[in-house]
Amino acid sequence: MVREVKKEDLEQILNLYLCLHEESIPEQSEYLSNTWKQEKGNLGFL
After folding, report:
1. Which residues contact 24 (CB under 8 A, 6 or more apart)?
2. What pLDDT, on a 0 to 100 scale, did the predictor assign at position 11?
3. Has residue 24 got a pLDDT over 80?
């Protein structure tokens, strides 16, 4: 399935990141929000 990313997708993507790579999910911050906006613009779809 291909669709555009939504702001609400960030939590699910962070949970996937946690399962694959890390021990904790990054804290919600302005940096995380800005990074998400930038990547969302680069991806355009999932």
Report:
1. 18
2. 85
3. no
Please provide the size of the chain in residues: 46
- Which residues, in sequence order, are CB contacts of 45 under 8 Å at separation 6+? 2, 3, 4, 5
Nearest partner of 27 among 39, 38, 18, 40, judged by Cα: 18
Q: Is 40 exposed, middle or buried (0-12, 13-18, 19+ CB in 10 A)?
A: middle
Angle at 34 between CA 8 and CA 10, to 5 degrees: 20
Per-residue pLDDT of 33-43, as tens digits, reads 888 788 776 65
Q: Amino acid letter at 27?
A: E
CA angle at residue 31 from 19 to 46, to 5 degrees? 50
